[in-house]
Amino acid sequence: MPRRCSPGTRLYGLIGSPVKHSLSPLIHCTFYERYGVDAVYLVWDTVPEALAERVHALRSLAAGFNATIPLKEKIIGLLDGLEEDAAEIGAVNTVKNGGGKLWGYNTDYLGVMKCLGRIQGERALVIGAGGAARAAVYALYRLGVSRIIVANRSMDRAKKLAHWARGLGIDLEISSLDDAENAARRADIIVNATPLGSKSCCPDQAPPVIAAIHSGQVVFDMVYQPLETLLLREARKRGARTVTGLCMLVWQALYAEKIWLGIEPSIDDYNYVVNEVVKYLSTSG
Ligand code: NAP
Fold this sequence. Notes:
- By secondary structure, the chain is α/β, with parallel strands linked by helices.
- It contains 10 helices and 12 strands.
- α9 packs across α10.
- Bound molecules: NADP nicotinamide-adenine-dinucleotide phosphate (NAP).
């Protein structure tokens, strides 16, 4: 039966740029249909220069929204308050509107924790030093991983991330991308938090760690298009356990719904939504 809108339809959505190919509307609307929630989820392409105006409009229109690249840090100054984890991470991907007051949350790290949750390991290598890497480091720290190395192309950005981490008491080493292979060999968990391998950047590329991957490791690629990146394909061949970026994408969305609607996400919800996304991707090319 087709969904219908009503005078009570709640508005949710995503701001960021670019957002034209985002999977978030599909993920969230699949969830609304599953639970019979009278809500819609749209995307609003928003560049940093237009952020203040957009947030002003959404304050009176939307019940909540997500923020993505390049707004996760910039949005903080426009909000009325931050949940503690979002404040520690210094990035917001989910905003709840409570009677015109906007509260910022971070569900990216919850997505990482959920996807890595049952994983045992002491040493992790995170490749990348942007916002996604920060969420990964925070999640690994919360999962009790005691040795974290961050390898990044630009050492300046890696140093900034290390400075942030030390401020939270996270003991973190940094490495150049050229040395990532050495760190990867000794890591229990390897996380790619760069766009390397993504459809939009370079699907035939991977972070320079493949030769070091072996069985007993977990390799998590935050890239979700394609679903199986070159890194994950090679990791699987080498006997490592793999975790896809789609896992994180769907869990961070389900945790945003928990904040907005109070619905505790279940593994059945996760499987249902993943199935819909995979169906969509397999027919959309
Ligand atoms: P970001 O803040 O722009 O950071 C990008 C990072 O990737 C930086 O460390 C950058 O290095 C590195 N990088 C970019 N291009 C590179 C290249 N050609 N070679 C080597 N390193 C490169 O982006 P982000 O928000 O952290 O996102 C990173 C990736 O994670 C994106 O692909 C994004 O789609 C994905 N992501 C996925 C999810 C999910 O739910 N699955 C959530 C968030 C992000 P420099 O510092 O040297 O520029």
